[in-house]
Design a protein that fits this description.
The protein is of the alpha/beta class. It folds into two domains: about 150 residues, Nucleotidyltransferase, domain 5, CATH 3.30.420; about 180 residues, ATPase, nucleotide binding domain (Nucleotidyltransferase, domain 5, 2-Layer Sandwich). It contains 14 helices and 13 strands. The protein has a five-stranded mixed sheet, sandwiched between helices. The chain has a five-stranded mixed sheet with strand order 11-10-9-12-13, with helices on both faces. Helix 5 packs across helix 13 and helix 9 packs across helix 10. The chain is globular. Bound molecules: zinc ion. Zinc ion (ZN) binds next to loops.
Amino acid sequence: MEVCRQRRQQGHSIPRLSTLAAKRASREASWRPRTRDSTSTSSSLQPRRYREVKCVVIVAIDIGATWTRVAVFEQRRMLAKKVFGTAGGEKLLERMVEAVLELVDRGSIDAIGVGTIGPLDIRRGAIVKSPNIGGKTIELGKPLAKALGTPTYIVNDCVAAVWGEYVYGIGSENLVYITLSTGVGGGAIVDGHLLLGRHGNAHEIGHMVVDVTGFMECGCGGRGHWEAYAGGANIPKFAKKLVQVWAEKNPNIKRHKFYQSVLEGVTVEKLYQTARQGDKLARAIVDEINRYNVVGFTTTTNVYDPDTIAVGGSIALNNKDLVLEPIARAVRESRDLVTAPPKILPATFGHEAVLYGAAAIAEEPPKHLLKAIEYNTNNT
Ligand SMILES: [Zn+2]
């Protein structure tokens, strides 16, 4: 791929960390805030916080529970993307390197950003015993930086997404990103500071307890966690247990045509589609899932006091009418809030929020992330 041809013709070598830091410093020195109503004829991404940069090539990687996406950005525009199944994780590293090199020359990359499912050990850049990839631990930091000879920055996927909203999107100093997808996750910026935590897991909001009765078991082994009720991997199990409990009280439910589908393990897509068609049982299940979503959103709001919550993830984005809008309404009216209700909006970059976030992390890594990570050496 032709990236930054002019720079390569001039014989520039792979930038080192210090070079990128110098680029950042010079950009920040010339930074001027954009006004909200500023317009541009350029088709490239228009960041709110930074002036446009010259010729920075970023590889962004989004490691999801099901799919891994690899993309190349030049001057903040996504040029190309490859998607493959995360599939157990054994060959994940190898496949990521292959995909990157199919998209871009090794020597053209300025930095790599990775947003991944957790939990993480942020110092090593490792996914640690993730329930979403069969409890495996995968070292990414050192091997990726070494294989591609480029500074690499690895954070939780929702941390990447909230940083992407901060640098390229909404730009607010008090901002939360929540994903409702295979799992439930979040990232938070408080007073302009990206929360990371000791191990990089300061925002595992999907594992907050939303039900002290522990009706559902989470993939992590805990009980009553938000993700166990509203994560796509768990919704079919939750729906089944719900209708079984409801049927004990009201056996007539068993005659409902959707009841059998739920017992057999209805897909998330089918559940929301059936609810949208007006089926009462499907609608009752969706409403029950939303009760837990509202507890999660209100608690998150009370903890971080954001002015905006950007929501991503396929369940929220594909079902705005049945998920996003009812949650936003209920949070606005909630008596459980001890602070002002935030705006609740779809993520600026939709299904690609993590990719844009990973690009933002690589381009503008926060200082405390640079301090925490141990895997970028002089050899990268
Ligand atoms: Zn959990």
